[in-house]
Write a structure and sequence with these properties.
With about 400 residues, the chain is α/β, with parallel strands linked by helices. The protein contains nine helices and 24 strands. The chain folds into two domains: about 100 residues, Roll (Urease, subunit C, domain 1), CATH 2.30.40.10; about 280 residues, Alpha-Beta Barrel (TIM Barrel).
Length: about 400
Amino acid sequence: MILIENGTVYTPDGVIEKGTVMVENGRIQTITPSQIAPPPDSQVINAAGMSVVPGFIDLQLNGGFGHDFTQQPETIWDVAAQLPQFGVTSFLPTVITSPLETVANAQQVMAQGRPDEFNGAMPLGLHLEGPFLNPEKKGAHEMRWMKRPSLSHTQNWSPDNHVRLVTLAPELPDASALVQSLAANGVVVSAGHSMATIDEAIASFDTGVRYGTHLFNAMPPLHHRNPGLVGALLADERIVFGLIPDGIHVHPSLIKTVWQAAGHRMTLVTDAMAAMGMPPGQFQLGDFEVTVTERDSRLLDGTLAGSIVTMDAALRNLIAFTDCTLAEALPTITRFPAKLLGLPNKGRLMPGADADLVLLSPNLQVQMVVVNGRIVYKGATHFRSASHRITGQNL
């Protein structure tokens, strides 16, 4: 049992100052506005001066720490073990356009389950970004592996078979039938890497598309007489969309505009690639070699190729770009992605929910992470243990 006390606790109903969160058997048992007597053998964490928030959920992560999921699906668990340092407690490993055998290999990695003694973020299923994309908006995807939408390729794509989200271009021939089939199987279908007109986009929403992959990127720019996919995603209340808040993929001033217009439907994604968590150098993204600097990651022709932003930095960026509060920003990386995936026990701190929690310092640096009721990361503030009590030092 873990008892987290004296922290500022962010719940769906509001913020509790000096609250106490009790965790047992992988679940949140109680949240109270005052200290309680620690049960026998409980581990007590003094979170004074810290914010206690839900674990972060990343819907689009291509890899990290030198590993690329498309080239090396077997590294999903290696990356997952290191993600908590950025506050991530669950995520969708993302496989970009590649041979269908690669998708099958990634499904097999997921089916084998977590390794023994694993401590880290939990993969919730795959995000397949492709192969049914529009070559005119291929971005950092290999055109030779792109395919026309076909039900024959996707018969075993479902959450039960470890596929949670599929990005496709809804204007492609036969895309409508594929959207309906995937949605019927419980897969979240997203519009992205697309040249869809606003009418084509709306028609796909009517068919079952419920998400938009990295708003503005790999789609035509918004035009006041031809709104296209961007306009459709921003206008339709049925749709949630992802946005990469590194300040490079989308200008900070436009992020603020989107926040004011549709922040209640925004999910932050990193779209991070193998270079995340690594020094600058040369890295892989699928079939491509990517040059990574301290600032960004690009193909040889200058095309942006994923990002190197981390999820905790994404949260700080959103707050800096929009002047929103932590309470306002948190749902974009917790409750909104969990709701999109149909996971009511994730993304919120409340009794009965999964015990995925992050402790943040006043400047929003990750100090401690709990996944499924187990402490999987302790930050540089050197929490120390004494008589089963852990206290943050030098915050």
